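$ fold --in a.seq
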Amino acid sequence: MAKEKTDPKVVFEHLKPMLAKHADKLAVVTDSEDNYYLDTNHIQKNKKPLYFGSAKLRAKYVSFYLMPVYLKPELLEGMSDRLKKRMQGKSCFNFKEIDQELFTELGALVDAGYQSYAEQGFVD
């Protein structure tokens, strides 16, 4: 049985809350119907805030970026092969459909990333 196609907007609306739950301690740079983008309040040596993550609606999928895994790749240890297959590069995951099991795993990774940033002093 073929999987039913999911509107990328619906996928975006499932992914956005994973980031938004941390918005009270981060800086919301963009909150639109196709882009949700968070920075930390930590200013880097280049005088720009440290990026935390974002969800970006594309034509046929949603890209989910999570910078803490770029800075601390060990956060990815133990990640399922199914989630690993969604990775593009070092800190981006692409999704075309709703997969609650993967979304639960990704949500835990977002929380671990936030905790990692807190331990490094990038967020309170």
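$ fold --in b.seq
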Amino acid sequence: MESFASYAFNKSHAACYAVLSYQTAYMKCHYPCEYMAALLTSVLGDRGKIAVYADECTAKNIKVLPPHVNESGAGFTVQGHDIRFGLKAVKNIGRGLIESIIKERQNGKYTSFYNFCDRVYCRDMNTRALENLIKSGALDGLGANRRQMLESSKRFLDIVGANKERAIDGQLDLFGEIDGGVKKEPELLKLSEFSHTELLEMEKETAGMYLSGHPLSEYDGVIKAINSDTLNNVTDMENSRYSDGAKVDVLGLLEKVSIKTTKNSQQMAFVNLEDKYGSMEMIVFPDVLQKYGGLIQEGKILRIFGMVNSREDERKLICNSVQEAPKDIGAVPKKQSNSMQKGLYLRVPNDDCREYRKAMQITEIFEGNTPLYICFTELGTMYKAPFSNWVSLNDVMIRELKKRIGEKNVAVVE
């Protein structure tokens, strides 16, 4: 390594990187909010990285607040001890509209939904842009819920537009009646707010991520307990850990499920799977769909055991099996009624003996979803093999294992 470094990474280059590393570490340590805000702004177009960095903020007790027309800048900005989401990250919000919003609020914060529409009305303010601001939560807290604002958005823009035209023509304002010197605002429809799930879906649609929560947040403890793979890592083509054929254990949300019929008149599914850090396509072949079809439905949160299918520029997930995602660590299946976990149990002296090597050669042939446990008698320990070494139970494998390491050293718990 030392000889390689003498020519592969010259000292001047290394010195520059060292200085940059120290400066970055200093900023992150002493100015964490400013540092993370700049980092988030630098990846505005990458939802996966924004989610990862937002989680880093949470770990540092820094809140990433949703966008708001009274507080947000174009990019991510520091607000007290928190970070405010940037308006530029909201879909279909142009630079001109953002500049108008920021410039106009210098005259005072927006006090209501109609007040915002009236003051920011410009050529960049169209129904689509206004609706996206509403859906992202950027207009929350202005005296109306999102359903009321969405239902009134076009009507309010039409009213404001008509007022502007009348003002230009020197005519009376449509709402020119004065009551105590204050303009009367059009009334909002009396409508109840959307459900929490619907609000989160709106945020995902317009900001590319969930802002006021995440459907998987209540599963954080379980995800950590099972050491779940994350989709941003699985889809990273530079991550060799998830090359073609690699096994993964993912806890994710089935955002969209599309059922297709094969040439053999069987049904299979193509699923848009996502977690807090990314998304990818999952393929469910007919035999798996037939077995788990009751669970593979849109909106379901499942624990998925699968295999990576990697091509030159894309990775997909082949689903092998699924199970309901437990909401707490205590609900994660651990022990069977006989106090032993389900799986294949092998007993060998140590991890350097002939029996162990022979057993590994056999089990590698029969990849599957059954856990593999190995008891090392000389060490007095029980080892649970990683998911990539799990097996598919069958008579041929069991018979061969008993022949090679002894019938008493092979056991199956179902």
